[in-house]
Structure formats: C-alpha cells, structure tokens
C-alpha cells in the first residue's frame, strides 16, 4: 500500500465516522427538541385549564352577584312601596303627625 491509498482509506474512515457522529447528534437533538416541545405543550395546556377554571369561577361569582343584586332590587322596590304606604297613612292624618302631636318616625 502506498501513501495515497493509505490517505484514501483514512479519509474514508474519517468521513464515515463524521457522518455517524452527525447522525447521532442530529437524532439526539431532534429527540431533545421533541421532548421540549411536548413539555411546552403540556405546560400550555395546564395554563389553559387554569384560565378556563378561573373564567368558570368568575362566571359563577357573577351569577351569584347578579342574583344578590336582583334580590336587593326587589327588596328596595318593596321598601319603596312600604315607604309610600307609610307616607300615605301619615298624610291622611291631621298633618301634625298624630293626634297628640308625637313624632311617629324617629
């Protein structure tokens, strides 16, 4: 074997080793990126679930608040009606607030 064929064999082996190493590195990088993307997708799904749960809780709170607001509105209307009735009864009297002149409302 002369030096040219020795050099050719060494270059061929070096090229084969280089291709093998590059293939392993590319496969490992691809696997690592795939795993990282899966982790990111899982984390994003968790955030989406938390946001959905938060929105649902806010909707429930809003529905409760609307219910309380409706109850307060009904109570206010009822009190307005009762107050109007009281004013009518007081207006129907002698105008002094009662027969003895005492104050009815304190």
How would you describe what is shown here?
The structure is a single chain. By secondary structure, the chain is mostly helical. It has one helix and no strands. It has one helix at 3-91. The mean pLDDT is 88.
The unreliable regions are none
Specify the structural class.
mainly alpha
Q: Helicity, in percent? A: over 70%
Radius of gyration: 43 Å
Task: Note the beta-strand portion.
Answer: under 5%
The H-and-E topology, N to C, reads as H
Overall 3D form: rod-shaped
Q: Strand tally, please?
A: 0
Task: Provide the descriptors you would attach to this structure in a database record.
106 residues; mainly alpha; 0% strand
Helices, strands, pairings?
Layout (H helix, E strand, L loop, with lengths): L2 H89 L15
Q: Could you give a short description of this structure?
A:
The chain contains one helix and no strands. With 106 residues, it is mainly alpha-helical.
């Amino acid at each position: 074997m002369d030096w040219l064929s020795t050099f050719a064999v060494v270059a061929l082996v070096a090229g084969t080793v280089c291709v093998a190493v590059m293939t392993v590195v590319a496969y490992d990088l691809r696997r690592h990126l795939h795993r990282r993307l899966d982790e990111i997708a899982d984390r994003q799904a968790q955030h989406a679930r938390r946001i959905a749960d938060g929105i649902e809780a806010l909707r429930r709170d809003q529905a409760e608040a609307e219910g309380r607001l409706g109850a307060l509105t009904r109570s206010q209307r009822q009190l307005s009606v009762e107050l109007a009735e009281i004013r009518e009864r007081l207006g129907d009297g002698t105008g002094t607030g009662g027969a003895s002149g005492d104050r009815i409302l304190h």
